[in-house]
Structures are given as structure tokens and as C-alpha cells.
Amino acid sequence: MTSGNRRDAGRRRLVWGGAGALAFLFLSGGAWLAWTASAARAELSAARAALPGVRDAVMSGDGSGMRRLDVVRRHAVAADEKTHDVVWSVVAGVPLIGSPLDATRGMTTTVRELTERGMPALVSAADSLHPAKLLSVGHLDVISLRRAAPALSTAAATLGRERAAVAALDPSWLGPVADAHGELLAELTALSEASDAASEAARLVPSMLGADGPRRYFLAFQNPAESRASGGLLDAFAIVAADAGRVKVERIGANTQLPPLKAEITDVDDRFAERYADLGATSTWLQANVSPHFPDVAEAWEAMWKGSTGQELDGVLTLDPQALSAVLAGTGPVKAPVVGTVDAGRVEKLVLHEQYAMPALGTDRKSLMLGVGSATIDALLSGKVSPGTLLPGLREVAREGHILVHSRDETEQAHLVDLGLAGAVPDAPGPYAQAVVLNAAGGKLDSWLRTQLDYTVTSCSRSNRSVRIAVTLRNEAPVRGLPSYVTIRSDRPTYPTAPSQNRTELEVLATKGAKLTSATLDGAPMPLAPPTGTLPTSIPDDAATTFLQVAEVRDRPSYWMDLELLPGRTRTLVLTLDEPPGAAEPTLPRQATVIPQIVKAHLRTCPAAR
What we know:
By secondary structure, this protein is α+β, with helices and mostly antiparallel strands. The protein folds into 3 domains: 3-208; 215-419, no CATH class; 433-602. The chain has 16 helices and 19 strands. The protein is globular. Residues 10-30 and 90-94 have low confidence and may be disordered.
């Protein structure tokens, strides 16, 4: 073999050797990645699976938080260590191919940082706030709760940032990694919400329960079987006093026991009086809650109480049957006069339906909500509650408007608005639509009232945005078998009505600056009401139809009318409006009704305003 041939053979051996070495490294690296990825996913899955236990411990304060957190931490550290070697760093940076590795590394890092920074403060504070330490009969340790506020606030902020970091990760094209990302994000979202709730409670509750001086509140029990904008008919009330965390009920009664008003109230927002005084909102206890802006309602009730008793109030709270159900889920069953044992599963059916068919109640029907509400308050103040059940349940019904809270303290009220607990019509500009129903018949047929609002963007440009708001009402009440107390027409109509026929005042709030271009009712043009003091050019020939009234609520255009609703029939009001231009999605609040309102947005891509 010549020297040239020997050199060529040597080069071939070198090339093949190098290729073999590269192949070996590639296969070894691939095997290493596969093994560590599998191990990391297993550890990450174990950490994620242990997070609900930490959340439950935080909610209940049962003292197991740190032990449960240690389990999450061990798995998180193990997962993180397996995803941060040289091989992972190189491959994770390769476009597309490295996406699953990069997403996995991001998740393991986030969970580890959570267990080492944000969650220990949260768990430590929650463990120190065990109900057995904070609650006794009629008393909450507001001092300890206030001391925990800074740590809870820090924990909430950290959890929020880490949740946002996970949400920002590319979930990857690889199914198992994408699934793990979704599951982890869901757990972190739930934990972040629990942390936010604990932080806000520690910030708000001490002062509202008298840590800085005595407080007194009007507690309204509302019955949505007869709808009002804030929830329902004021069925019963209580005056609740709080001083340094000690809570007691000073007075409680049915709506027939409310103190008589000496005069029409004047200490309310002028816009509220102008819009709703004609409906009795400034002169009648049971009509004050006709405004969808609950702060106005609360201020009216506060003014009524002061005008009739001379006593100042510091705020107002409302509860309805769904809220009572959430409370009873946390306290357990209670016993109420006449009706006996009431639990979370019975209270809604009892208040909305059963009470009207119970002969035993008779003339005591007005005291039903009073009895159930009083027993529920006693159970809550006893301190024998399950926070892990009570708090998530209350958070859910509050989110849906079944609990509303108002404080005369401006700082507290601002927090309540931010939390969505104040029932406030927002001041901010931007697309908006809200359907509000008020019972105008005096019966209890709104348990069968179905409401749907559809907000549709029909066209848009840089200078204009046209929308169609369609509100559909349907009366699904049975025509037979309902007690007369339910179907009564206290409004005493002068025209014939059918069994179970209901009457509703429908109000639609729209975007600030919107202009109405047309309106139809059941497909026919809807006449606008003539200016005050003038006669209409024509009168609708249908007794179930009135003019469309135009007003303002909190500087928003408002359109309202009375509607007769025959059982089994649907009525649809359609408003076409020109809104200020913009690409924002609409805010579509839902009134707290027995049958939850349906709201839908039908959007199109719109350019930003000029």
C-alpha cells in the first residue's frame, strides 16, 4: 500500500471515527434528554398534583400548610435540577425542536421559585390564621388578621407574577408538555385567586369589623323571585354592629317592620333621584334598590335609616338565597321557625318556591326570610365554620352579584369597587351593555324569567362603531298550579291578563357617548317617548306595549320600557347604536337573577380609534 493510500485510509478512519463519535454523542445526548425529560415531567406532575393540598390548607388554615408545601418543594427542586444542565441549555435554544424543553424548563423554574419565595409567606400567614385561633362566638381577632396583611400582600404579588410567567410561556407543540402547561396554569390561577382573596380580606375586614372604631351596617336579605336591579325584593333586614372584631345583631325584622319614613330622602346622588324618584326610590324602602348602581341604593337605604331613626350607618350588605346557600355550605344546617331544618341544598327552593305553597306559614310568610337569615347569621357568628368550603363558595356567589357590599369609608369603597363587590356601574369609557329587569307586577314570577343579551358589532371604522344590542325576555312560568301569592297582580292592570302573565320594566344601559339610531320591539319599530309635557303623535294600540323611554344612569345612555310577558312567550327589544370608535371588547355585566342571565358578544376586528 502506497503512502498516499495509507493517508487516504487514515483519513477515512478518522472521518468514520468522528462520525461514530458524533453519532454516539447524539444518541447518548438524546437518551439523556429522553430520560431526564421523563423524570422531570414526573417530578413536575407530582408537584402540580400536590398544589391543591397547599391551596386547601391556605383556605382552611388547618396547620398543614408547611408540611404540604415541603412536598411540592421537593418535587419542584428535583424537576428543576433535571432541566438545567448543558445538554438541556443547548437543545432548548433550537427553534421548534427545543420548544418542549424550553417550556418544561420554564415551568420547573417557576414552581421552584414559588415554593422558595411566594408560597412560604402565604402558608405561614394562613397557618397563623387558623379559625380556632381567630374565631370565637361573635368575635374575630382583627388585630392578628391585620398583622398578617403585609405577608399576605407580598405572597399575592409573587403568586401573581409567577402565574403570569407561566401564562406567557409557549405551551409547546408537544401534547404532554402542553397538557402539563395547562394543568399547572389552572392550579396557579386557583392558588393566586385564593391568595388574592386572603390578602384583600386581611386588608379590608379588620377596619370594616371595627378595628379602628365601632361600625354599624344595614344587612338586606333580598328575594329575586320579585326582581330588583340589585337582586330582589327587600324581604328582611338586620342591623349588625361591629366593634374591635366583636359582631352582634342589634335589630332584625321583616320588611313590614322597617321603620316608617318621615319624609322623602334628599341625601343621595342627584342623578339617582332624577332617574328613579318617580319609581319610589327616594320615598319607599322596597323601591330604593331599582338602580343597577348599588352604591346609590346603599346610600338611599342609609339615608332612609337615618331619616327614620336618627342613627348613622357605616355601610350596607346584601344577601340573597344563593348567598345564604353558600354560607350554609360552610356552617352546616340551621333550624328556622315553622320550616324546620334548612341546609345549603334547601334554602333556595324554600325561599323561591316552597314557601308560597306551605299552608303552615300562612300570615307568617313575611317572617320566613327573617327566620332563615337570623339562623344563618347566628351560625356564622358561632365560629363553627369550614373556611375551606365557606370562602370559595362566598367568592363565587360574590363574583356573580349575589353578595353586594358598600362602605361609607372612601378608601374601603374604592377597594370594594376594584374587587367587584360593590355592584357599581363602571365609570370607565369603552363598549358596554347591561340588561336590567325590575318586577312591575308585584308577584313572584321572576323565578321563571329568562333573560339574554346579545351585543353585536355590525360595522366599525376608525371614526365609528355600530352595534346591535338585542335583549330577549321569556316568561317560562307554568299556567297552572301556582299559588295566587305568586301570580298576584298588585299593579291592578285595567286590561285583561292571562294566568301567570308577568310585567317587567326592562332597562338597557349602553356605552358612554353612544347614540341610538333605531329601536324595534318584536320586529316592529319602537316609538320613542315624546318630550315631557308634550303629547305623542300616535298611541301604541297594544296594551302590552309602551313607549321607549330615554334617560341616563351614571352618565350612560339608558333605554327603558314596561313589557307584559305572557307565559310561554318571548319578547325581544333591539337597539341599534353608534358608539365611539375603538377595538376594545365590551363589558357585559349580568344582573343576579334566579335563572342566570345569558350574555353574548359577537365581535369583528375593528381598527383603533384615530
